[in-house]
Structures are given as structure tokens and as C-alpha cells.
Amino acid sequence: MVAARITVNGKVTPISPAASHTTVLDFLRERGLTGSKEGCAEGECGACSVLVARPGLRKPTDWVAINACLVPVAALDGQEIVTAEGLGSAGGTGTPADLHPVQQEMAVRGGSQCGYCTPGFICSMAAEYYRPDRCAPAESNGAHSDPHDCEHGPNGFDLHALSGNLCRCTGYRPIRDAAYAVGTPSDDDPLARRREQSPPAPVATELTSDGRTFRRPATLAEALRLLRERPDAVVVAGSTDWGVEVNIRARRADYVIAIDRLPELRELRVDADRIEIGAALSLTEIERRLDGSVPLLAELFPQFASRLIRNGATLGGNLGTGSPIGDSPPVLLALGASVVLADADGEREIDLADYFTGYRRSVRRPDELIRAVRIPLPLAPVAAFHKIAKRRFDDISSVAVAFALDIEDGMVRAARIGLGGVAATPVRARDTEAALIGRPWSAETVEAAAAVLRSEGTPMSDHRASAEYRAAMLGQSLLKLYTQTTEAVLS
């Protein structure tokens, strides 16, 4: 294999002698690129963000912002990244005085005080600056033209691009003003021109240091063979979960297998009877490819962590951890989804309702990978996702409830309800479903079913919420859904 290397700000840099667990952030700072900072080491503050060249939807390449504190540098072998330092010389002659347009707007509008978080904001802002379909409302048939829409600028800037960046001293208004003031990339902007070329292709990687190995296989078959040989291996895609374990709990793995760039896990197909989503597609990629065609997922994505996290996190990873408070399982349960598990001998399909067996446990064997998630069609016409958390965005759920109902002529013909945060695993609210199916969609039916829903699961009390609060929120979520559907009919 070719020695592992990464292109940083246009310069090819060898990865060795970095350890297999070394993060992109530590790798950069050890080489003098100290613009990226460690603020939380959990992917919550964005001080570490950098740009990575990834396959695009409307252009061959998209510049995607990620948390450098979470991703092992070995995972970017053969890839291309740009840091805040690289942005500073991207639009001019390379001298320190050549500010990138994003940096210029942040400077003149007072978007930086202590400066600690500024490079991370700038990288996230630059990713949105280079988004190919970003355009002013007049150029997008009136999209985001609502004067009360405070989350989109007159230049088409989506403020959610900065949802993973935390400012501790400046205040967000001048940062927002800078975001809403940036124009469009000039014709001679090298990073804009770079979008017209394909991103670097994934390369097979083997990096061994101090007896620990990081492997990126070239094919799914090779990955499954390695997993059979090393069932103790840690499998990573976006590393948004494992990266926290490495940083906060000092976890180390003797063998890591990266599957994030395997083409067999990165397909999205829409057939007549189902949608199949590759397990290694990032949530951002899924969101943009589906483009709202699955309304329940469209409700989920903006509430799932931050854009920085969604640029790396995958459905396969969210299901693979088996967390009872993951945001995607309740939605996928309501959608009636199944998972495709693959090993070296073949595949099997498991209904997601039968997938979880206990706290962070599932039917998936150590030698198996989640290859894809399948969602049956047609979709239920009435759907909603309610996430109850202390913060509106970028927070862990206290309770998550997803509904998918088929209501015809005022009667509930079918119902699926997925719950998170109220048991050791994500669960279907089957008793509540039974209390709804075959009955009129009326206040009386819903109130009775809400009482049943309050008793579903075995919620516990912790620092996020009490058991009583969680139970109350279950019932309240169904009442809220009824109110929303009634208002929609009346309007």
C-alpha cells in the first residue's frame, strides 16, 4: 500500500508517524496549523471545524465542514482538506493580508472578539458560502422570502450551517450579519473552481503504530472478511460516537475498520415499493438526496445534532450503537423500516422492531455490518416527529416520538409509533397503536390513546428529565399531533 498521506491546504503531507487514534485536530496542531481549536472534544462547539472535499450532488465536489476533533486522521488518507489558514490565502496571492470573503465579513462586522471560536465559525461559514445551490430568494422562486424567516439570509445563507458552532463572548448577531453579507464566489476563486473537479477517490489504508492498526478496506467483501478475522474490531464511519470515546474516555482500539467510503454502503435507491439507504451515507447526504420526499425524515434531520455532526454521522452508525436515545430509531420504527445485515456469507433483513434486544445490544453479530436501511412505500400520509429536549437544536432527547398514521374518511386505518428515551431500547408503542387503529380520529379516541401512550415503555429519571415528565410528554405528543392535524384540516 502507498504510505498514508493527506492534502492540507494544497500541500501533500504524510500521516505517519501519527498513531491510529490521532485525530485530525491533533495532527494539524502538531504541524503548526493551530487555527483549529479544541473546545469540547465532543463535536458540540465547532471550534475545530475544517473543510473536506467530498462527492457533491450538484457539482462533482462539495466542500463539507466536519469536526476535526472527532475524525481520526487516518480516515482522511488520500483526501483533501482546507483549514482556516488555507482559506486565508485561497482568494489572493497567498500573503497574510489576503482575507477570504468570509473572513473579511467576520472582521468588518465585529464577528470576533477573543478569536477562539472564530476559525471554526469561518470554516462552517465557508462550507455554506460554497454550497452550489445557495442563492438569493429572488433566484430561488421565492424560497426563504418570508421576512419573518430569521434562519435564512437574503443571500440564501442557511443559518443552520452554523448550528454546531458555539461562541462564548461575541454574541451571535454580528456573526449572523457576516453570514448574511457574504456574496457569491468569484470566477477566479480557486476553491469554487475546485468544485468542478472530482474529489479524491478513497484509497485502501493500513496504518499501524504501537501495535494498533487502522484499516480502510477497498471493498465491502474485504471489510466483511476482516471483520470475520477480527470480530473485536471497532467499526467507524463518521466517528461522531467513537471519536467522543477516544477523546473523553481515552478509549483505544487495537483494530479499527473504516467503512465510510465503501461504495456498496453509499447507495440510495428509490424503487416502486421501497427506499434503500446505504448505511454509510451521511445524514446530510441523505437529506439532500431525498429532498423532502420522506417528510418524517425531513422533520428529523434539522433536529439531529448539528450540521457539523450530520456531515459525518450515518444511519448505520446511529443504529449500530444501539443507543435508546438515538434520534433516528423512533423515526425509522414509525416508517416500518428494516435493516440489511451483511456478513462474509451473505445478507439477512431484520425488521427494525426486532433489531434491538437490550441496552446498546441488538441481533447484529460481531462479524456483521449494517449494509442498508429499507423503508417500505407508500408512506403514511400523516406523520410527525416530536423531540423533547432542553435545547431546541443540538441536544440529546429527553423523549422522542415519531408518528406515522393512515387516516381515511376520519378513521385511523393504520398506525405506527416509535419511541425513544423511555426504555432500554427504542420501542414501538404497540398498545397505543392498537388503541387508535379502527377508531375515529377524534378528541375522544386521541385522549384515550394518549392515556395508553403515557404508560408505554419504562422511563427512568436522570439529569435530563424525570420518569414522570417523560411519561407526561408521551401523552402530550399525541394530543399535539391531533391538534396539528385538526388545524391543518380547518385551514
UniProtKB/TrEMBL annotation:
<dbReference type="InterPro" id="IPR016167">
    <property type="entry name" value="FAD-bd_PCMH_sub1"/>
</dbReference>
<dbReference type="InterPro" id="IPR012675">
    <property type="entry name" value="Beta-grasp_dom_sf"/>
</dbReference>
<dbReference type="InterPro" id="IPR036884">
    <property type="entry name" value="2Fe-2S-bd_dom_sf"/>
</dbReference>
<dbReference type="InterPro" id="IPR005107">
    <property type="entry name" value="CO_DH_flav_C"/>
</dbReference>
<dbReference type="InterPro" id="IPR036683">
    <property type="entry name" value="CO_DH_flav_C_dom_sf"/>
</dbReference>
<keyword id="KW-0274">FAD</keyword>
<dbReference type="InterPro" id="IPR001041">
    <property type="entry name" value="2Fe-2S_ferredoxin-type"/>
</dbReference>
<keyword id="KW-0285">Flavoprotein</keyword>
<dbReference type="GO" id="GO:0071949">
    <property type="term" value="F:FAD binding"/>
</dbReference>
<protein>
    <submittedName>
        <fullName>FAD binding domain-containing protein</fullName>
    </submittedName>
</protein>
<dbReference type="InterPro" id="IPR036010">
    <property type="entry name" value="2Fe-2S_ferredoxin-like_sf"/>
</dbReference>
<feature type="region of interest" description="Disordered">
    <location>
        <begin position="180"/>
        <end position="207"/>
    </location>
</feature>
<dbReference type="Pfam" id="PF00941">
    <property type="entry name" value="FAD_binding_5"/>
</dbReference>
<dbReference type="InterPro" id="IPR012175">
    <property type="entry name" value="Xanth_DH_ssu_bac"/>
</dbReference>
<dbReference type="InterPro" id="IPR016169">
    <property type="entry name" value="FAD-bd_PCMH_sub2"/>
</dbReference>
<dbReference type="InterPro" id="IPR016166">
    <property type="entry name" value="FAD-bd_PCMH"/>
</dbReference>
<dbReference type="InterPro" id="IPR002888">
    <property type="entry name" value="2Fe-2S-bd"/>
</dbReference>
<dbReference type="GO" id="GO:0051537">
    <property type="term" value="F:2 iron, 2 sulfur cluster binding"/>
</dbReference>
<dbReference type="Pfam" id="PF03450">
    <property type="entry name" value="CO_deh_flav_C"/>
</dbReference>
<keyword id="KW-0479">Metal-binding</keyword>
<keyword id="KW-0408">Iron</keyword>
<dbReference type="InterPro" id="IPR051312">
    <property type="entry name" value="Diverse_Substr_Oxidored"/>
</dbReference>
<dbReference type="Pfam" id="PF01799">
    <property type="entry name" value="Fer2_2"/>
</dbReference>
<dbReference type="InterPro" id="IPR006058">
    <property type="entry name" value="2Fe2S_fd_BS"/>
</dbReference>
<dbReference type="InterPro" id="IPR002346">
    <property type="entry name" value="Mopterin_DH_FAD-bd"/>
</dbReference>
<dbReference type="Pfam" id="PF00111">
    <property type="entry name" value="Fer2"/>
</dbReference>
<dbReference type="GO" id="GO:0016491">
    <property type="term" value="F:oxidoreductase activity"/>
</dbReference>
<feature type="domain" description="2Fe-2S ferredoxin-type">
    <location>
        <begin position="4"/>
        <end position="87"/>
    </location>
</feature>
<dbReference type="GO" id="GO:0046872">
    <property type="term" value="F:metal ion binding"/>
</dbReference>
<dbReference type="InterPro" id="IPR036318">
    <property type="entry name" value="FAD-bd_PCMH-like_sf"/>
</dbReference>
<keyword id="KW-0560">Oxidoreductase</keyword>
<feature type="domain" description="FAD-binding PCMH-type">
    <location>
        <begin position="207"/>
        <end position="380"/>
    </location>
</feature>
